[in-house]
Write a structure and sequence with these properties.
Protein name: DMD protein
Strand content: 5-15%
Organism: Platysteira castanea
InterPro entries: CH_dom, CH_dom_sf
Shape: globular
Number of helices: 7
CATH superfamily: Calponin-like domain
Structural class: alpha+beta
Helix content: 40-55%
Strand order of the largest sheet: 1-2
Distance between the termini: 30 Å
């Protein structure tokens, strides 16, 4: 039950993010890992609710993901009171930590307007399964146990599976 509630919370949060950033063509958030590593999603989310805080084009044209992430985290701290919980270098990777991203986006959700339309939720539900929320892959591991084959299925985020 807790897993279902978490999945529903993630879906609502992802719906809110997608709805908030839909007017930013450079941004397409489909998960809570790789979609955030270039820094554009954090900045678009902030700018969509508080366009008075910075010039989007100036931030979007910055050459470094670390610079864009640092900008977003500093704006959130200075103007929204959200502590800088993430290091830009830890997010600007091939596979940022999902729980850390979720925690930070939840902090933004708590202080920014929270309207989520049913249309935005349906849109997330329609995302291909491989890109939705966790981007999970099924990896089968077979073990021999007393001449009986046992099959296990593990769910790993695709951005982090190193097989």
């Amino acid at each position: 039950m807790a897993g279902l509630q978490q999945t529903n919370s993630e879906m609502i949060l992802l719906s809110w993010v997608r709805q908030s950033t839909r007017n930013y063509p450079q941004v397409n958030v489909t998960n809570f890992t790789t979609s955030w590593s270039d820094g554009l999603a954090f900045n678009a989310l902030l700018h969509s609710h508080r366009p008075d805080l910075f010039d989007w084009n100036a931030v979007a044209s910055q050459p470094s993901p670390v610079q864009r992430l640092d900008h977003a985290f500093n704006i959130a701290r200075q103007h929204l009171g959200i502590e800088k919980l993430l290091d830009p270098e830890d997010v600007a990777t091939a596979c940022p930590d999902k729980k850390s991203i979720l925690m930070y986006v939840t902090s933004l959700f708590q202080v920014l307007p929270q309207q989520v339309t049913m249309e935005a939720i349906r849109e997330v539900e329609m995302l291909p399964r491989h890109s939705r929320v966790t981007r999970e892959e099924h990896i089968e591991v077979r073990e021999q146990h007393f001449s009986q084959e046992v099959s296990f299925t593990f769910l790993l985020p695709s951005c982090c599976s190193k097989v």
